[in-house]
C-alpha cells in the first residue's frame, strides 16, 4: 500500500509522523553528527527502554493491527508511539481494550501524534478534550502535534505557539502533557528571518508544552542536535531515533529517483547504525538534558520490509552504549 503524506493529511485531517523524504534544497548539508563510529557493545544497552513509532509499520498496522503489535513486541520494543490512522490512535479498539492488549504483549503506549487541527481550530476543542481524557485513561504521557502544515510566516508560527499553550492547559488538567514534533521546516527561516523551532520553544510555557526532537531532520537541516538539546535543556522530552543515509547513498537516491511531492524531499532514512548519526554520543547528551523517551522510526526500506528492519533497529538499541 502506497501512502503519500499529502494524501494522508487530506484524507484524515492529520499530518504524517515524520516525512519520509529528504529536503533537496539541503541535500549538500552535513550536520555536525556526520559520524560512523557509533559504539556498539555486546553487553547491556545504556538505554533501558525504547519504543517504536507505529508510522514505521503503518501498512502492516492498517492490515492487521494486533498481529503487527505482537511483531513489534517480539522484536524487543517495550513502548509504542501511535498516530491517527483511519481507525484512530487506538486502532479501532476501545482505549481500555487497547491498553489491555498492549499490556498482555509487554507494551506501553507512551505517546501519540494527533490531529494538528486541534492546535489552531478552537472549534475542535471538545473533540480534543475527549481524546485527551481517553489518552490519560490509558496512561499516556504525551500527545503531540506532528506537523502543522506548509507554513512559512512568523505570524503563523506564533499562532501555532499560542495554540500549543492553550492545548497545554487542557492536557495539564488531565495529567498528561502537550508536545510538538519537528520536521525540516522548523529550521528554515521565516519571512522575518526567525526560526520556527525557536519561536515555539521561547513562546511556549515549559510547564505546559514539551518537544520531540526528530534527530534525522535536525541533522539533515545542517543543525547540531546536541546544541539544541543543550540550549533548551529539559524542553525536549522525546527523541525520534532515526538514521540518515551517508552522503554517497544520499546522492545516489537523488540522482535516480523522482520526487512525488515538491514540498517533501526524497526519503533517505535507513536502519540504525547504517547511516551518519552517532547515536552513542547524541543520545547520551539527550539523556543528560532531560529526554525521557527514545522512539525508533524508519521510513525507507531498501530490499527489505518494515517488519524485518524493526528487528535490526531493536537489536541496535539493545546493544547501544553511550560514548
TrEMBL record:
Annotated Xylose isomerase-like TIM barrel domain residues: 69-319
Keyword list, A-Z: Isomerase
Pfam families associated with the record: AP_endonuc_2
Matching InterPro entries: IolE/XylAMocC-like (IPR050312), TAT_signal (IPR006311), Xyl_isomerase-like_sf (IPR036237), Xyl_isomerase-like_TIM-brl (IPR013022)
Entry protein name: Sugar phosphate isomerase/epimerase
One Gene Ontology molecular-function label: isomerase activity
Gene3D superfamilies referenced in this protein's UniProt entry, alphabetically: Divalent-metal-dependent TIM barrel enzymes
Amino acid at each position: 500500500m502506497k501512502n503519500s503524506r499529502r494524501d494522508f493529511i487530506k484524507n484524515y485531517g492529520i499530518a504524517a509522523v515524520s516525512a519520509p523524504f529528504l529536503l533537496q534544497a539541503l541535500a549538500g548539508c552535513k550536520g555536525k553528527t556526520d559520524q560512523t563510529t557509533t559504539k556498539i557493545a555486546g553487553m547491556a544497552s545504556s538505554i533501558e527502554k525504547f519504543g517504536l513509532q507505529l508510522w514505521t509499520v503503518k501498512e502492516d498496522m492498517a492490515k492487521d493491527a494486533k498481529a503487527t503489535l505482537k511483531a513489534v513486541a517480539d522484536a524487543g520494543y517495550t513502548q509504542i508511539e501511535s498516530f491517527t490512522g483511519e481507525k484512530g490512535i487506538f486502532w479501532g479498539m476501545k482505549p481500555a481494550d487497547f491498553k489491555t492488549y498492549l499490556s498482555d504483549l509487554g507494551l506501553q503506549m507512551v505517546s501519540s501524534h494527533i490531529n494538528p487541527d486541534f492546535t489552531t481550530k478552537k472549534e475542535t476543542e471538545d473533540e480534543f478534550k475527549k481524546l485527551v481524557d481517553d489518552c490519560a485513561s490509558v496512561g499516556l504521557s504525551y500527545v503531540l502535534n506532528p506537523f502543522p502544515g506548509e507554513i512559512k510566516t512568523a505570524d503563523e508560527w506564533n499562532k501555532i505557539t499560542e495554540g500549543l499553550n492553550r492545548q497545554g492547559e487542557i492536557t495539564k488538567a488531565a495529567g498528561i502533557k502537550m508536545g510538538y514534533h519537528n520536521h525540516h521546516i522548523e529550521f528554515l527561516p521565516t519571512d522575518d528571518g526567525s526560526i520556527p523551532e525557536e519561536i515555539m520553544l521561547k513562546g511556549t510555557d515549559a510547564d505546559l508544552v514539551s518537544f520531540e526532537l526528530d534527530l534525522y531532520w535536525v541533522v539533515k537541516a545542517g543543525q547540531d542536535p546536541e546544541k539544541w538539546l543543550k540550549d533548551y535543556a529539559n524542553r525536549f522530552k522525546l527523541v525520534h531515533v532515526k538514521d540518515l543515509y551517508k552522503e554517497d547513498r544520499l546522492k545516489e537516491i537523488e540522482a535516480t529517483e523522482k520526487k512525488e511531492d515538491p514540498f517533501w524531499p526524497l526519503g533517505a532514512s535507513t536502519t540504525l547504525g547504517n547511516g551518519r548519526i552517532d547515536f552513542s554520543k547524541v543520545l547520551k547528551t539527550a539523556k543528560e538534558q532531560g529526554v525521557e523517551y527514545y522512539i525508533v522510526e524508519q521510513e525507507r526500506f531498501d530490499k527489505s520490509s518494515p517488519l524485518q528492519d524493526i528487528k535490526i533497529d531493536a537489536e541496535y538499541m539493545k546493544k547501544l552504549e553511550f560514548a
